[in-house]
Amino acid sequence: MSVKIAVLKETRPHERRVAMVPAVADKLIKLGAQIRLQTGAGDAVKLPDSAFKSATFAADPIELVKDADIVVSVQPPAIEIVRAMREGAILISFIYAHKEVELTRLLRDRKITCFAMELVPRITRAQAMDALSSQAALSGYYSALLGATSMARILPMMTTAVGSIRPAKALVMGLGVAGLQALATARRLGAMTEGYDVRPETKEQAESLGAKFVDTGVDARGVGGYARELTQEEKDKIASVVTKHIQSADIIITTAAIPGRPSPKLISKPQVDGMKAGSVIIDLAAEGGGNCEYTQPGETVQIGQVTVVGPLNVPSMLGEHASELYAKNQFNLIELFLKDKGIALDWTDEVVAKTALTHAGEIRNEAAAKAVG
Ligand code: NAD
Which of 114, 130, 286, 317 would be 358's cystine partner, CB 3.0–4.6 Å? Predict the structure, then answer.
């Protein structure tokens, strides 16, 4: 008997990604799985059903999931999909339980084993399963392009018959996966780059990408390689150093996040009010409320002569490559589960244990259990 994997078509607004690509489907089939997709699942990224050579299709998602062993998607599925899944089946998707309280309770009550992609531990062995990183890398790249195309200036130095244009200054605030990729891309486009973070280890990373590090003297390393929240005193110290860099930049890209907290505010209204006319802020943290006090999630706003862009679901704008990387991340996770053409979950494996949101009628993740109540 082979493992049946069902692939949902995404239904949330503006979601273009799909959780399966043909190369990954082929690899899973080689491992003995059967792949069944919802008809048209890859349409938004120009992956027609005919590209999935050895898969089967179902138009009705309820029909699709009802006898599946594993259901995969990018965004959390609709309630009625989870209701139709059989007890004990596996769901693999981004969930963010604190935003999906009803769904998480249903996953628990229906005894679904749900692996939430945002819970994959940030350890070396799990890097190939880490969809937060793969999607953040794409977002970081795209933020530099958004910045470049949101202003009436060029990034590189250009010498012309009528004189030279100076290179643009790009400042990246928050040097995690997305921020480092933004720095690298802005530099490749010819900008002079500066980076800033509250984790001092990012200095060397920024410099290795040819950027200057804006040193504020604040060390806000938290647990697990993440940053912690800042005190008011630290915020004031940072502002005294960072303001002049903000106000001399042409492009600012912000990516700062603290797990489980709203986006920290790195750019205040008065700092924006003092920015150069014609400059632009690309706030990649818009989803969590934004790093700039003027950011309106999902909108581009004009504040005096400064443009503040708050894009949502940036990976979806690069849906083709985002789907490819996401499907590969999921493949590496699913591979852990497959044994002798069946499913065997090894709960002593840190990746399996930590990625599980719900299993056997319980919420396995402590923070999620608290959020769901
Ligand atoms: P993230 O999305 O949580 O945050 C983005 C950046 O914002 C971080 O660098 C953080 O330090 C910074 N930040 C937070 N508050 C700030 C503030 N007030 N001012 C300036 N910057 C602020 O980060 P991420 O991309 O998910 O990466 C987090 C960490 O995890 C990094 O150390 C990264 O190297 C590590 N990581 C490890 C693995 C792995 O080993 N498998 C994979 C991915 C990431």
Answer: 114
C-alpha dist (Å) from residue 260 to 99, 234, 370? 11, 20, 12
Cα distances from 330 to residues 22, 27, 309, 326, in angstroms, run: 13, 12, 31, 6
How far, in Å, CA of 335 to CA of 346, rounded? 12
Whether pTM > 0.85 for this model: the answer is yes
Provide the 3-class DSSP secondary structure of residue 62. helix
Q: Whose alpha carbon is nearest atom 13 of ligand 1?
A: 256
What's the rounded Cα separation, in Å, for the pair 180 and 182?
5
Helices 22-30/319-337 angle, 10° precision: 10
Length of the chain: 373
Catalytic option among 130, 197, 250, 283: 130
pLDDT digits (tens, 9 = 90+) for 85-101: 999 999 999 999 999 99
Q: Reduced to 3 states, what is the DSSP secondary structure of residue 253?
A: strand
Taking every pair of Cα atoms in the chain, the longest distance, rounded to a whole number of angstroms, is 73
What is the residue whose two structure tokens read 């001399």? 248
Average pLDDT over residues 273-287: 97
Token code pair at residue 75: 């965004």
Could you give the CA distance from residue 63 to residue 307 in angstroms, rounded to a whole number?
47
- Residue among 198, 231, 233, 263 to mutate when testing ligand 1 (max atoms within 8 A of CB): 198
Pocket test for ligand 1, best of 118, 226, 232, 263 (most atoms within 8 A of CB): 226
